[in-house]
Amino acid sequence: MVARRLVVSLALALVGMTVPAAASYAVTPSDLYVATAANGGDDTHDCSQVDPCATVQHAVDLAAAAGTTIHIGAGSFSGEIQPGAKSVAFEGVSTDETTLTTPEDSVDGFVLGVTTGTTTLTKVTVQGGLLMDVWVSGDATFTADDVVLAQAGCGLVVVGGAADLTDSTVEDGGPGCLDIPTPPGNIVVTGGQVSVVRTQVLKPAEGVAGVAVTGGAFSADQTYFDNSAHDPDTDNSPAIRVQGGAATISRSTVHHFQSGVITAGGTTSITDSTFDGNVVGVTSESGSATVVRSTIQGGLASVQGEGGELGVAGSLLGAASIRNCAGTITDLGYNLASTAADTDPGCSFTQTTSHDGVTGLNLDSGLADRGGPVPTVAVLWPSAAADTIPVGATYGDDGSPLCPGSNDTDLRGVDRAAGGACDAGSMEMARTATTIDALARIKPHKDLDLDVTISVPQVDLGLDAPNGTVTLRDGDDVVCADVPVVGVGARCTVSNVAAGKHRFSAHFSPTVGSTLHPSTSKRAIVLVGTAPVIKGPHKVRLEVGRKVSITLSTSGSPTPALRKVGGHLPRGLSLHRHDGQITISGRPKPSAVGRHRLRVRATNLMGQDAHRLTLVVRRR
Questions:
Q1: 3-class DSSP state of 508
Q2: Is 353 left (phi over 0), alpha (psi -120 to 50) or beta?
Q3: Which string of DSSP letters, residue by residue, matches 214-236?
Q4: pTM attached to this predicted model
Q5: CA 337 to the chain's CA centroid
Q6: Among the listed ranges 239-253, 450-464, 469-483, which one has the minimum average pLDDT value?
Q7: Which of 63, 91, 130, 243 is most enclosed, with most CB atoms within 10 A?
């Protein structure tokens, strides 16, 4: 329609005829609008905010080659959407209010097909694709943020290009993509690159994988794979099945599948992830899989090697009902496994840093919200897993870092090496900071309040409150033991504090079952005493040969040190110091006649005082 109008306009212009102004949608604006018919949408409109279109594809047809945002109103919109070479952004009202569906007469069986250019999708639910909700191929780039892909044969299929999902959900998968020669999945990757971040992959159809990878590269970070809607004992759905290409699973949680991750070709890397309630956590049938700093518990077995390479490092294997390790695994160090059953032969660890039959892992019995975007099986205080991996530890032939000590986090985003070393497993007990506040100076034998504050530096992640007790010391001496933390603090009152310099410290001990590390404050220095004051004469007249004794004394606590810091004594006199006093005594000699000026200073930890004394020696 637009093309015909442009041709007619050009022809009329050539013969000098006056042409009526073209419809406003012939000049493509950067923002177009789509609404249901009930809300004023009509494809005879120009897709402006005042006169919206009725179908998304019509707005696409009017969009510029790049830079157009199509705002989709509340309601359900049916149609196959193909941006073609245009780079378009689609923005709905919310995933609850804006829905894109495939028409009953769909030719290709998808709702959105992206084959080139860049397509962005936000605040929209896409559902009901006969074969798939979103198809990405060629050199296209597809980016989705706050999107739901649901109730299709496959939610997302990528055969080329790149697709990124953030803060989204892919759920309720159907029987699969019938025309795709690959095992079905909520997400299918046969080529290109796919990345999902803080996304949920839920409820694939029975026998359908959450993610099926046969080529290209797939990565998931802080993503939750859950199949609680089905019985894992009868539903053979895996969360992720890798038959080719490469899959990288980091800081994610896999729950209630028959198989958590199956590698049957290609390579799989799993780091900082939690597997709970799966019949088997990680299986390697062929290809290679590596499990690093992850926690696997529940089901019949934690890990099993069935012909493929399976290496495990820095991981926790706990509470499997039959055995933790089945088949052959490669121990890469710092693994801890509990005894699954009386008949469990153990994992046959080969590294001295790994241990079977560990009884003190102290793990959550199941998934729980421990902060961050995904639930996890927490390491609870105290645990044998705490600080078991020293900073700088590595694994594998290439010496990959296992505990770098910085720029590394667990699956919640908690900084690793919180306690000075890394915890084994997917979850690091969070760092705490203990500070102590007290008056810097007090008088002797008074009461002193020591106020302790416990903070969790990454509290924005929704971590535990600092429950526990505080023990305070003055040097090595305990002054208050096991003071309960109330809110985020505790108070200790020390009575009758003796004069001197006191170095107080506070140690926080988390409650049993906490997910926080203990911590000790820096020392708080408290000076107890009074400042020195020197008492005595400022001028004394002396006679040659006459015996004399002059005393200068000090007050203050602790007892000040009193000494001469300037001037010279007359000949025949001497100075003695004892218990905060100075005594000048003797008989001045004739050569001492004259005026002698002395300076004396008293010092203790509370301060100092100065005194000037003039001695005038005369002849008889």
A1: strand
A2: alpha
A3: SSSEEEEES-EEE-TTS-TTT--
A4: 0.85
A5: 25
A6: 450-464
A7: 63
